[in-house]
Amino acid sequence: MNSKRLEAFTDGVIAIIITIMVLELKVPRGGSLADLAQCLPLLIAYLLSFVNVGLYWNNHHHLFQLNPRIDGRVLWANLFLLFWLSLVPFVIRWLDESAWSTGATAAYGMVLGAAAIGYFLTERAIIACNGAGSKLARALGMDWKGWGTLAIYGSAIPLSFVSRWLAVALYVLVVALWFVPDRRFARVALP
Predict the structure, then answer these.
(1) How far apart are CA 85 and CA 11, in angstroms?
(2) For this UniProt entry, which segments traverse the membrane (predicted)?
(3) d(CA 106, CA 96)
(4) What's the rounded Cα separation, in Å, for the pair 5 and 81?
(5) Which of 76, 73, 21 is nearest to 45 (CA)?
(6) Could you list the residue range(s) of the whole structural domain that residue 173 is in?
(7) What average pLDDT is seen over the chain?
(8) Radius of gyration (Cα) for the chain, nearest Å?
């Protein structure tokens, strides 16, 4: 089957997730910059989450540009990814309402880490559907970036119980790792 319907569904779900995230933002009670500063922790969580969700959306697009053929495994792996992304607004709210508590910081990493696993499973399902010699399989190679992401989340979650700010720094590191355009896809997509 062709991936266009799955891509459209994923685009819609991600648009809803981003909409819910922005609706969860609280407006400052006053009109001064000091009042806005009180919202800064929530704005930071929103920014980090918006970029994370945007990175998944962007890279998801690349997956299906290389291999548009999908099967049931891809559909289920993609739903797994979307399930975890749909929990991002929930953990943002928990971060805000608990003043970035240890538990909420760990949960934030668990949700992002599980989404990373969902993305990894989606990649593997596409490769299984299209073959080991597919464009996606050639582009990913050993997939150090993907494995590194999983390792960083695997380290950051328990670290959040020691230092939540070091854990947050590792969450930002993952964003920085993926924010750099991934040339692997362009290299294989070009003739």
Answers:
(1) 12
(2) 6-27, 39-57, 77-95, 107-127, 147-180
(3) 14
(4) 16
(5) 21
(6) 4-189
(7) 92
(8) 18
**pLDDT value, residue 64:** 85
Q: Which residues of 128-141 are buried (b: 16+ CB within 10 A; e: fewer)?
A: ebbeeebbbbebbe
> Long-range contacts: 155-164, Cβ < 8 Å, 24+?
156/109, 156/113, 157/106, 157/109, 157/110, 157/113, 158/106, 160/102, 160/105, 160/106, 160/109, 161/102, 161/106, 164/100, 164/101, 164/102, 164/105, 164/106
**Structure pTM?**
0.92
Tell me how far apart the alpha carbons of residues 145 and 7 are, in angstroms, rounded to a whole number: 23
12 C-beta neighbours (distance < 10 Å), count? 11
Number of compact structural domains in the chain:
1
Task: Pull the structure tokens for residue 19.
Answer: 């909409």
Single-letter amino acid, residue 71: D
- Tens-place pLDDT, residues 6-46: 999 999 999 999 999 999 888 888 888 888 888 999 999 99
Cα angle, residue 179 at apex, residues 173 and 181 outer, rounded to 5°: 135
Angle between helices 72-86 and 40-66 (to 10 degrees): 170
Paired tokens of 149:
């992401």
